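Complex 1125.
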Amino acid sequence: MADVIQLWQFPGGIHPPERKSLANQSPIRHLPVPQTLYIPLRQHIGLAGDLIVAVGERVRRGQALTEPGLQGAVPVHAPTSGIVKEITQHPSNHPSAIPEPTLVLESDGEHESITFARLEDPHQRSTQELLAHIQKAGIAGLGGAAFPTAQKLRQPQHVDVLIINGAECEPYIVSDDRLMREHAETIVQGIQLLQQIIGRPEAIIAIEDNKPEAIQAMSDAVAGYSHMRVQVIPTLYPSGGEKQLIQILTGKQVPATGYPADIGILMHNTGTAYAVARAVYHGEPLLERVVTLTGEALREPGTAWVLLGTPVAHVLEHAGLVPGPQQRIIMGGPMMGFTIADTRIPIIKSTNCILAPTAQELPAAATEMPCIRCGHCEQVCPASLLPQQLQWLAKAKDYDGLKEHHLADCIECGACAYVCPSEIPLVHYYRKAKAEIREQVIEQQKADIARQRFEARQARLEREKQERLEKHKKAAEAREKALAERAATATRPAVDAQDPVKAAVARAKARKAALQQADAQTVQQQAHADTASADQTPAQQSPQQARVAAAIARAKAKKAAATKQDDSES
Amino acid sequence: MSLVTGIIALVILAVIFGLILGFAAVRFRVDSDPIVEQIDEILPQTQCGQCGYPGCRPYAQAIADGDDLNKCPPGGQATIQKLADLLGREAKPLDEAHGVEDIKKVAVIREDECIGCTKCIQACPVDAIIGATRQMHTVIADECTGCDLCVEPCPVDCIDMVAVTPKPDRWRWDLDAIPVQVIDATTSAKESQHG
Amino acid sequence: MSFFIASSPHHHQRRTTQDLMRIVLLAMVPGVLAQFYFFGWGIAFQLTLAIATAILTETLCLIARERPIRQALQDYTAVVTAVLLAVSIPPLAPWWIIVVGTVFSIGVVKHLFGGVGHNVFNPAMAGYVLLLISFPVQMTSWMPAVNLAGAHPGFFDSLALFFTQYTSEGFSLNQVRLVEQSSMLDAVVMATPLDHLKTELARGFTLSEALNHPMFSGIAGMGWQWVNAAYLLGGLFLLQQRVITWHIPAGFLGALGFCAMLGAIIAPDTLPGINLHLFSGAAMLGAFFIATDPVSAATSNRGKLIYAALIGVLIYVIRTWGGYPDAVAFAVLLANLCVPVIDQYTRPRTYGHSTGGSSS
Ligand code: SF4
Ligand code: SF4
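Predicted structure with iron/sulfur cluster bound:
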C-alpha cells in the first residue's frame, strides 16, 4: 500500500501467545468421509427449516435436506450420499450439549453428487437472484456467529464499507489464514459478488500482521481490482471482534443498540466470501468447511476440510488425539471456545477450530481468589467496561446494577479473565448473569401474556354468564308466552286455522321452548353427574360411553395400583 | 408587639410555603401505577390459586389490603423479596401451607387417553388448552403457566406435569449440569494405540 | 475417561496476586537497603517482627472468619502491608509499636472490613496513623541519617534498644540520639529533615537559614534523598513489570511537585522547593508503593490520576500548614475516603454508548 492509511485503536486488548505455527504449516487436507453424519437441522441463528426428506430415503451429496419454509430459514444439505437413517435428538454443538433435532445420515461411501446448478453470468444477475441463490446454498456466517448471510446482505441501510474479516485474532486458529493462502482468488471473487449485492462499496480485507503469507496472497489477488484493498492491522486480541475491527478500520463505534449497518458498515468473514463464490460460480452449497485441528495433544495438527455433520470423534481420531489426564476438547479457540464433554457432537457451519491442549500448554484454571481491585481487567477490556465492578454485581445478583453497568455490551472476549491475577472466571460470571437477565425478561413477557390471557378469560366468563342469564330470561318469557298461546289455541282454534302463519310461529316457539326446557334439564343432569358444564351436552352414544367407562376404569386401576405400591413400600 | 409580629411573619411564611408545596404537588405530580397494579406486575401470573385467591390479580388486591406477601409458591423467595421492597414490609419466608417452590413445569396431555371431556379446558386459568367435546385436547406449551389446576379435574388422569426441558438458547451456563460422557473402551483403546 | 469441562477463556496469563506481591516486595529491596545503610539495624528488626506479627494476625483472623488459610496466606498481601508499615516507622521505635500497628492494620483495617479486596483504607497507612496519633513521641524519634552505618548503634545495641529501649550500657534512645546528634555538629531535637524544617520555620527562620543545616547537604537532605531515590528505582521497576500503571505515581508526584513549585515561586522565603518535597519523607515510597495499593485506590485511569493528584495536593497542604511534618499517611487515608465518589464520576464510556456510565 503506497499511501499511509489511518488506523485507530480500540481500548485495551491483550497479547496472548499466538501458537499459530502449530497448525498453519501444512496445506488444508481432506478427512475421509465418516460412516455416520449427524446433521443438526438448525445450524444458524434462527429457526430450523422444514424437513423435506424422509427416513429411509437415499440422498446424494449436495441435496437439500430442509427448505426455508415460512421462517425463511437457512437450509442444510447432505454433505455426502447415503441413506437417511433417522431424525432424532442428538447432542448439539453448543456449550450445553442439549440435544437438538438432528438428521442421521448413513454414508454409502460413494460420495455421489447431484448436478450442481451454478448461476450463469452472475454479474448480469439482479440482487434478488443472487440473494436467493446464496440463501438456497445454505450459507451462514462462517466466522462463528452463523448469522444467515443472505439475511445480513438484505439489510436496507446504505453500506459504504464492506469489511472482510481475516483478522483471526484468536490464538491457535488458522482456518482463515490457510484459506486465504490457498484460495485467495476465490475469496476475491466472492468479495466482488458481495460488493455487487450491496451496491459496490469499498471493500477492506483486514488481516493481522502475524500472517505475512496470507497478506501476500490476498494482496496479489486484489491487485487490479479497484474498490478493494488489503489492510494490515497490528496483532492485538480481540481485533477480530466485529465491533473492535470496525473501530480499528474506521474509528467509528457501532451504537450499543444498533448494528454495523446503522453506520454504513457491513462485515463478512473470508470463509463466507469463499462459500459465496463457490455457491455462485460452482453451484455448490455449503457442505464442508475448513477446521483448524490443533493443540499439543494432537499428533497431526493442521487444517482440514471437514464435512458438516462429522462427529468430533471422527475428526479427533484422524488428528491423532493422545488424551492426557483432564483432557479438554475445545470448540473454537482458547479465549472464547467452549469445552465439550461428548465427542458425538457434530461439526457445524460455525465450527472453526477444535483444540486439544495438553495440561502443560493451557493449564486448567486455578482456584479463584478474591478480587484485589488491581484494575488490570479494566485496562484490557476492549469495550471499556469495568469488569471488576461487573463481577461484584454479578456475584451479588444485582441485575439492575449490571444493566446500568452495560453488561450487555460485554463481548465475552475473555481478556479480563486472562489477565486477572486472582484468576476469577469473570466471563463465566457474566454469562450466567446474562442468562439470568434474559430469563427474567422472558419470564416477564410470559407473565404479561398470562395476565392478558387470564383477564381475557375472566371477561369471557363474565360475558358468557350474562349471555346465559339473558338466554334463560328469554326462555322463561318464551315459555310463558307459549303457555298463554296454548291456552288461547285451546279456546280459539278457529283463529289459528285462519292464520296459518301465526300458527307456524307459535309452533316453532313451542318447539323452541320445549328444547330450552330439555336444555335446562340437561344442565341439571350434568349438575347431578357432578359436572359443571352448562354449554356442553354429555356424550350420549353408547360407544363413547363405553370409552369413557374404560378410561375411568383405567384411571382407577392406575390409582389403585399406585396406592398398593405406596402401601407395600411403606 | 414583637411577639405578634413574629407570629404574623411565621404565619405568612407558612402560607407561602404551603402554597408553593401545594402548587408543586399539582404541577410536578408523578402518576404512578396504583399499588395493586404494581403488585400484580411482580406476581408471576401463574394464576394457580395456591395463595387461596382465584388468580394473581385478586391476591394482589388482597396484599394491597394487608394480606401476607408470602403465599405465592411459584414466585418463591425472589417474589417475596420484591414485594417486600415495593411495600416496605418485612420479607418473610414462604408460607409452606400454600406449597413449596418447585421447578418450572408444563402440563402435557397424553393424547391417546384423552376422552374429550373439556373439564381441563374449563379449569385452565389462561385458556392454554384447546380441544372440543369428544375431541382430543392439547396444551399450548408456550402459554401454560404450570399452575397444576387441570390435573385434578381430569376424569381419566391423562395430564402430566413435566419439567420444562431447557433449550440451548435459554441455557443458564450451568457447567456442572452437563452430562459427562464416558468414552467407550474401543475408542480409547484406539487412541492409546496411537499414543 | 471423560473430557474435562471448563468455562472460557481457557488460557490465562498466569500472573497471580502472589506473583504481583512478590514483585512488589522485590521492588522494595533497594529502598530497604538504603534505609538499612543510613539508619542502621533497626529496620531489620522492625521488618522481622512486622512480618511475623502480620502472618500470625492474618492466620488468626482467617481462622476466626473460617476462611481457607493456606491460600490466603500465600498471596503475600499481609506481608506487603507489614513491610510497608515497618519501613514507615522510626527504625528504633520500641518493639510493641510495630506489633500494635500491624495487628491493627491486618486485624481491624483489613479483616473487619471483609478481608483482601474489601478494605476501604490502606491498611498500612491506617496502622501508621493510629500509631502516630497514639504514640507521637516514639513515632517521631528518628535517628539522624548517617552515611556510615558504623556510626549507629551496633547490632546488639540496636536489638537492646528495640526491645528494652536501653542500650547494653544503659543509655536510653533519646540519650543515644542526642549523643549522636551532638557528635554531628549540631543538636536538634527533631531528626528528619522535614521535622527540622518545620520547627525552624516555626521559630521564625527563613527557608535558607533553615536549610543551612548540614543535614540538608545534597538535594533534599542527607540520607533521605538516597532512600527516596532507592524507592524511585524500585518504583520504576514496578512500572516496567507492569504491576502498576504510570497514572498514580505521575498524578501524585506531578501534583506535589506542581504545588511545591507554585509555593516556591510565591513565597520563596518560607516554602521549600520541589526537590525537598519530592525527595524527602515518604514521598517516593508513597507514590510508588502506598498510593498504588489497588484495593483502596480508584480504578479507572482517569480516576487514578485524580485520586493521586488529590493525595499530592493534600500532602503539600498538610506538610505546609498542618501539624505533622510528613503527611503521606493522612493524605492517602483522606483520598481513600473519596474513592467511591471518584469511581462514580470517572466511569469510562462503554463502547457504543454516547455518554459515560451513569446514564444507561
Ligand atoms: S469479557 Fe467482557 S468485560 Fe471482559 S474484557 Fe471482554 S468485553 Fe470486557
Ligand atoms: S483483574 Fe481480577 S483481581 Fe484485578 S480488579 Fe479485575 S477482577 Fe479484580
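The pocket of iron/sulfur cluster (ligand 2) is lined by residues A 371-377, 387-388, 391, 419-422, 424, 426 (CB under 6 Å).
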